[in-house]
Amino acid sequence: MEVIDSGATVLTVNKLEYAWKKGEVPVLRIDALGLSTGERVFLRGPSGSGKSTLLAAIAGVVDVQRGGIEVAGTDVGQLKGGAKDRFRVDHVGLIFQMFNLIPWQSALENVLMPCRFSRRRRERAGADPKLSALRLLDDLGLSDPALVSAPAMSLSVGQQQRVAAARALIGTPDLILADEPTSALDEDAKISFLELLKRECASVGSALLFVSHDRSLERGFDRVLDITEVNKA
Ligand SMILES: Nc1ncnc2c1ncn2[C@@H]1O[C@H](COP(=O)(O)OP(=O)(O)OP(=O)(O)O)[C@@H](O)[C@H]1O
């Protein structure tokens, strides 16, 4: 079992600048931002303030023009093409607004996806990744075998969200990036989903960067960060 050093840093953003188009005014200009191992941070800020762009930069989905982003000690800006994709699936779990599930595959197959593409995630998912996937789904409130084996597209929005969360969590990635994953849920479902997500992150030891402009959700996080305080763009 891997020992979690709670004092260690899982994410370091250093003198970052990002503009969507070369030569345009940057939408991100962040001097410094960090997350410790296992830390759960709520990142808030008004619409258009760059929250999703920051997550895309951290995930290596967009290439920053200046500065560095280190995830688990690796400068993601230095990774190219396939190496960047491999690094992402090894170290980062993503939960986006639209979930990005493979619609015709079952809930279980979707959860197991990172283990198919990443040896690290597979090894960290225990002797039988399928059992880990079923445990995660169960913990997140999806235990009915009929639902677990149903194609993702036949599930409700709330159920799909739980599948997306289990997929992000399997194989204990260092960092979970969640971008407004509760936006399609009603108030009660939002709170319970968030509680489950925080609890699961704590139990597997993944750090969580949770983005939302819904301030009613910020309780219970280790830290609340307003992007307008760190983004000088
Ligand atoms: N794919 C894109 N191409 C060009 N500009 C973009 C793109 N995505 C976002 N932007 C611009 O970048 C800025 C920051 O947008 P971003 O989506 O990061 O904000 P946000 O804080 O996540 O907003 P919201 O809370 O509404 O999701 C906005 O001015 C937006 O128009």
TrEMBL record:
InterPro entries registered for this protein in UniProt: AAA+_ATPase, ABC_transporter-like_ATP-bd, ABC_transpr_LolD-like, P-loop_NTPase
Protein name: ATP-binding cassette domain-containing protein
The keyword Cytoplasm belongs to this UniProt entry's keyword annotation: no
Domain named ABC transporter: residues: 11-233
Alphabetically ordered keywords of this record: ATP-binding, Nucleotide-binding
Organism per entry: Tropicimonas aquimaris
Gene Ontology terms for molecular function: ATP binding
PROSITE patterns tied to this protein: ABC_TRANSPORTER_2 (PS50893)
